[in-house]
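Researcher: Quick one. three chains, 271 residues in total.
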Amino acid sequence: MPELPEVEVTRRSFAQAIAGARVTGVRLGKPLRWPLGADGDALVGRQVLGVRRRGKYLLVDLDEGILLVHLGMSGSLRFAHGLPPPGPHDHFDLATTQGTLRLHDPRRFGAVVHAAGEADAVAHKLLGGLGMEPLSDDFTLDAFSRGTKASRAPIKQMLLAGKVVVGVGNIYASEVLFLSGIRPQTPSARIGPARMRRLHAAIRQVLEHAVELGGSTLKDFSNADGAYGSYQAHANVYGREGAPCKVCGTPIRALRQGQRSSFFCPRCQRA
DNA sequence: CAGTGGGCCTGAGTGC
DNA sequence: TGCACTCAGGCCCACT
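Model:
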C-alpha cells in the first residue's frame, strides 16, 4: 500500500494531534518484521515531540529516543481516543495522554523500531542508503539525472529501488513513467535529456498530487483519522491492463519486472 | 560493487 | 463448498 503519498498523508493526519503527548503504555501484538528493540514499558513517561517522514518511514520523535514506523504492504495507522479493543491485526498500540496510536497490519511486513537517538536513527540500517527526498530542494534535475545515468537497471526498477530517489512505489512508478513517455523496461542510462526532465518533473507532480488527494486507497488504506484516499481514480495506467489509454485509447499493457507488475501505454510511451 | 530473486505474511480472487 | 494457486501498495538479504 503505502508509498510516499500515503505515508505523508498519514503523518499529516496525526502529527499535530499527538505532539506534546505523554506515553502511558505500549501494547505489542504479533511479531512484526523486526522487533521493537526496546522494552515497551521503558517508553512510558516519554513525551512525543513530533512526527517526521523519511522515505516511507515515519519517525516519531520522543524526548528521549525515536520510533521508526514502517507500514509495509498492508499497514495503516490510527490515532484517536477510545479506539476499540485491538483486533487480530492490530500489532502495536502506543497509548498516550492525547490518544492511542495504533498500527494495523494484516500482512505484518511493517515494523516499529526503537532508535536511541538521532545519531542512532540516521545510522540505522533501515534508513541508511536511502535516496533523495523527491519533495525536497535536494531533488534537483542535475542530481537525479546523474543518479539515474549511473544505474544499469531498467528505469522502473531503479525508481522502486529507492537508492536515487525515495518514495516511488509500484503504483506511482508506472504513473510517473506514463507521464514521461518512457517505457518501464528502458535502461536508466539511456534516458535522454528531454525525457529526463519530464521524468524528474513528473515524480514531483504525481507525488504532490497524490498527497493532495489523500493518497491511493486500492483496498483498505486510510490515514490516521480513518479517511480514504482517492488518487487511484486518477491513475492513467496502474491496474488498467486492457483498458483504453485515457490519452490515445490504445489498450494498456502489463508486464512483470522483478516479480512486480508494471503498466504502460505502448503508444504514449515509446522510448 | 551492483543487480536479481527469494522470502517474509495474510487475505482475496479465480479456476477446477 | 473446497482446494490449489496467483496476486497484492515493500524491502532486506543471500547470492551471482
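The mean pLDDT of chain A is 96.
Researcher: Thanks, that's what I needed.
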